[in-house]
Specification:
Shape: rod-shaped
Largest sheet: 7 strands, mixed
Structural class: alpha/beta
Number of strands: 16
Radius of gyration: 71 Å
Strand content: 15-25%
């Protein structure tokens, strides 16, 4: 256990104390701080008695119990530099060490020395933290376990639930759990925020990853569909080529040149017939003309007149015979011409028939030639189609080869994104595991966890101590705390009452019982024992003589049992009767408080 023995307090220019130092030594015994106000002889208040408690509190925490502003703390009459020194000894498992705290105002400074060596930190705040760690002190502990100020501090029972709970946790040394819980909550919130941040990133990257995968699958699906289409085309092309090759084989070879030669010969024959027909037509025309001439001459030959119409010569008898002969002869020649015309007409008919036959054969040959040419063109078309199909098959083969691969432009992105996803998943899982562990740890240090277990173990001690002091103070009440540090106060009729239902003296009994109980618990459970207890205006409150007698007996017993320096601040003269130690006599004159030897009064 750590034991703190406060030895001496020296005060200069602090509140009503002036340039002349007021020094108090904290020796074992029941001491009383009292005095006289010469500025107001009929009053015993405003002497500066509470200044001792304020100065002790100020030396440790840098502020007063009354929470005065810093500029109101220095003595306003002397305008001197506030200077407070506190000497104490720390007895721990590491041995004994002597400490001195010096705190000043105007300027504000604080120093701490350990065994004469300056241990002051780099700032007032850090030095204050170091002092509190050395003393294992907190303002709430001092206000409720070391210094009880009736008029300036709120009694424990008058505090709100949060303040009560925090104080009792400090008393039980359980503030570490609250500190741990706060730290855990902060850590949990930090990790939770980081978890949410990383989870958001993970969700975004997972979306990107899925998008890349979907696009790759779409590409692969497109390739698959193309492959099926290309294979179908290949199959159709192969079948078409086979059919075309069969069709090509079924086409007979035709000698177009021979057909063309035959047509040329036939056309020569046609021309020959045309020449002959032309000759015959000319012959027919000549014979027709000749026959017509002869017919005309025949008509003109011979006359009934005496003179010849031609030569105008007289016609003799022998001329008539000659004319008759000539007419007969001309008639025969006309007949011959007509017959020759018939002959020629028959020849023409034959020639025309031959020509028609030639033309018919030519037409047949022309048809064969057209068919041959169509067949030849068909062969060319089929051959070109087969060639085209072969080219398409090669292109399809190349296309199939190009889509055969499963690689895409998204592969690198997918790999990189997957790596990021895996990395973030590890982070998120790590944070989740940490949050799960912190949830467990938070529960362990929470109200329902180990604290509840410890509290249940310590409640009997707390309640029994409190009952002990209430009985010693002859209180009309019983106070019991539950595991949530919620008190239940029963009056003498065993009815539940509020703290404020009781009179001032009854409330003071409860306050003192709590003070003594908390002081004992802190000493037993907190690992630290202070050799001092200050009770401000304890005897000046609502207690009657019996109450003061009971309190005095408790204080005297505690002094002996705990080697304690108990200081009672009082303006009652009769309080001096309880003293087993020093009477710290203060006198205030002209607004300045100074200490006098009690024997001098």
């Amino acid at each position: 256990m750590k034991k703190v023995n406060f030895k001496k307090l020296s005060i200069v220019n602090f509140l009503s104390v002036g340039e002349e130092p007021v020094t108090v030594e904290f020796n074992k015994g029941l001491h009383v701080i009292t005095g006289k106000n010469k500025d107001k002889p009929d009053r015993r208040n405003a002497i500066g008695k509470s200044t001792i408690a304020d100065a002790l509190y100020f030396a440790i925490f840098g502020e007063t119990l009354r929470e005065l502003k810093k500029d109101l703390i220095p003595n306003n009459l002397t305008n001197g530099k506030t200077h407070v020194e506190l000497d104490f000894e720390l007895d721990s498992h590491r041995g004994k060490n002597e400490y001195k705290i010096i705190r000043t105002l105007s300027p504000s400074k604080v120093f701490i020395f350990k065994d004469g060596v300056d241990r002051t930190r780099d700032s007032i705040k850090n030095t204050g933290t170091y002092i509190n760690r050395v003393l294992s002190a907190s303002p709430s502990i001092f206000q409720n376990c070391v210094i009880m100020t009736v008029n300036n501090a709120v009694p424990f029972m008058a505090k709100n639930k949060i303040e009560k709970r925090k104080f009792i946790e400090d008393i039980f040394g359980m503030e570490v759990f609250s500190t741990m819980l706060t730290a855990l909550r902060n850590e949990y919130n930090d990790i939770s925020r980081e978890h949410d941040t990383q989870l958001t990133k993970l969700e975004e990257i997972e979306k990107a990853y899925k998008n890349y995968e979907d696009q790759k699958q779409r590409i692969l699906q497109t390739r698959k569909e193309k492959k099926e289409k290309y294979l179908t085309r290949q199959e159709n092309n192969t079948k078409e080529k086979e059919n075309l090759e069969k069709e090509l084989k079924g086409i007979e070879e035709v000698n177009i040149s021979k057909i063309k030669g035959g047509i040329s010969s036939l056309e020569g024959g046609v021309k020959d017939q045309d020449l002959k027909i032309e000759v015959n037509l000319e012959a027919v025309a000549r014979n027709k003309a000749l026959a017509a001439t002869r017919k005309e001459n025949y008509k003109k030959m011979g006359t009934d007149k005496e003179k010849c119409p031609v030569c105008l010569r007289s016609i003799e008898e022998h001329d008539s015979d000659l004319i008759a002969k000539e007419k007969e002869k001309l008639k025969d020649s006309i007949h011959e011409a007509v017959e020759h015309i018939k002959f020629l007409a028959e020849g023409l008919k034959t020639l025309r028939e031959k020509k028609d036959k030639f033309q018919k054969v030519i037409n047949e040959c022309q048809n064969k030639l057209s068919e041959a040419r169509l067949q030849e063109q068909n062969k060319k078309n089929i051959t070109h189609r087969i060639y085209q199909l072969d080219e398409w098959q090669e292109e399809l083969k190349s296309d199939l080869e190009s889509i055969k691969s499963t690689e895409t432009d998204f592969d690198t992105l997918i790999i990189e994104t997957k790596q990021r996803v895996d990395k973030l998943e590890k982070k998120v899982n790590k944070y989740r595991n940490e949050l799960s562990k912190l949830d467990i740890v938070k529960y362990v240090v929470s109200e329902e966890g180990v604290k509840s277990y410890i509290v249940n173990k310590l409640l009997d001690l707390l309640n029994s101590k409190l009952l002990h002091y209430l009985k010693r103070l002859d209180s009309n009440s019983i106070c019991i705390f539950n595991e949530y540090f919620e008190e239940e106060i029963l009056n003498e009729k065993n009815k539940v009452c509020s703290y404020f239902n009781f009179s001032g003296a009854e409330r003071k009994s409860i306050d003192l019982a709590c003070l003594f109980t908390f002081s004992d618990i802190r000493r037993l459970q907190g690992g630290v024992q202070y050799n001092i207890a200050i009770y401000d205006e304890l005897f000046d409150s609502s207690f009657d003589e019996k109450g003061i007698e009971l309190i005095t007996r408790i204080l005297q017993d505690r002094v002996e049992e705990l080697d304690e320096c108990a200081i009672v601040i009082s303006h009652r003269k009769e309080s001096i009767k309880a003293v087993t130690g020093d009477v710290i006599y203060l006198e205030k004159e002209n607004g300045i408080t100074r200490r006098l030897d009690y024997m001098e009064i």
